[in-house]
Amino acid sequence: MKKYLNTVSAFQFYQLVRYSTLILIGVVFTKTALTQSAIGEYETFVFIAGAVSFFWLNGLLKALLPLSAENKKSNIFSAFVLIQIFSLSAAIFLLLLQALFSKYLLNEKNIPEIWLLLVYIVFGVPANLVEYFYLIKKKNRAIVFYATISFFIQFILVILPPVLGYGIALAIKGLVLSAVLRYIWLWVILVYYSEISYSQIFVKEHLKLGGPLVAATFLSGSAQFVDGFIVTSKFDENTFAVFRYGARELPLAMLLANAMGSAMLPEFAIKNRLKQNLKKLKQSVSKLMHFLFPLTAILLLISHTVFPVLFNPEFKESATIFNIYLLLVISRLLMPQTILNGLKISKNIMYASFFELVLNISLSLIFVQFWGIAGIAFATFLAYLFEKIYLTIVVRRKLNIQLQEYLPINFYFLYSVGIVVIFIFAELIF
Asked: Looking at residue 262, what is its pLDDT?
C-alpha cells in the first residue's frame, strides 16, 4: 500500500468506490420487485439533492484545496461552518420552492420524500468534507479505509429493504441514515483533529476565491441537471429512469480525471514548481489515456449487449445514452482547468462554464426535437468539449503554456478519432 498509495491514487480510489456504489445500487434495484417508476423516484430524490447543492459545495471544496497550504487547524472548522450554513440555506430554499419544482421541473409530480430530502441535504452535504480533510492532511490510508467502510454501509442500508421486499421509501431512509452516520464521523474528526475556532478572515478569503469557482461549477455542472430537468419536464418517470441509467459516462474517466485534478491543486498553488507540475500532469494524463481510451472502445462495442442483462430489458435504450456519454472521455482528459484552479485564476473558468451552459441548453432544446433523449446527451458532449477547448486557449494566451506541455498531443488525437469512429460503428453498424 505504501508503494502505490499517494494523494492522487487514494482520492481516485475514493471516487471510484463512491461511484461504483451508485452503480451497484442501481443494478440491485433492477433485480428486485421494484418498478421502473419506483426506481425513477429514488433517482429523482438523489437528483434533486444534487441539483440544489452540487455547485456551491464543489466550488467551496475546490477553493479550500489551494488555501490548505496555510495548514491552520481552525481553517477546517471554518470551512465546515461555511458549508453547513450553505446546506441549511439550500434546504430552506427547496422547502419554500417545492411547488415550483413540482410544477415546472417534475412534470406536476411531487418531490419524493421531501422531509427526508431536507435531512439528507442538511447532514449529508457537509459530510463530504471528510474526504477532503483526509486529502489535505495527506492521510492516504485513511481515505481508502473511510471509502471502503462508509460506502459499504451505504450500500447495505439502501439495497437491503428492496431485497427483503420492502418499498423504495425504506431504501431512501437507508440512504439518509448513511449520510447522518458520515456527518457524525465528520464531527469526530473536527473535535479530534481540528481547532473548534471560527476564523472570519479565512472565511472571507475562502469566499473570495470560491465565489468564481461556485459560479463556474454552477454554470458548468448545471448541464447534467438541466439535461435531467428537460427530460422530467417532457417525459415520464420511466423515461427519466432510462436516461439516468445511461447518462453516467465512463465512471473511471470522470472519477480518475477529476480526482487527479483535485489532488494536484495544492501542488499547482506552489508557483515556483510550475514546470515540474506541468510535467507531472502530462505524465498522469498519459497513464490515464492509455488505460481509459481502450476501455472506452470496449464498452462502446458491448454496451448494447450488456445493458439489458446488467439491468433488465426495459433499460436497453439506456445503452445509446451511455455510449454518447462515453465520448466525454475526450474532454475529460483535457485538463487546463487544473492549471488555472491551482494558480487561483478562477474568473476564466467561470466564463467558460457560462458559455458551456448556454450552448448545452440551446443544443439540448434543439436536438431533443429530432433525437429525443439521445439528442440531450449529444448536446452535453459538444458543450463539454467546447468548454475545454476554450480553457486551453486561455491557458496558452494568459500563461504562455502550450498544450503539449501538459498533454501528449499525438496519442490524444489518435485516440480521440478512433473513439469517434468506433462510436459510429457501434451505433449505426454493429
From this structure: 72
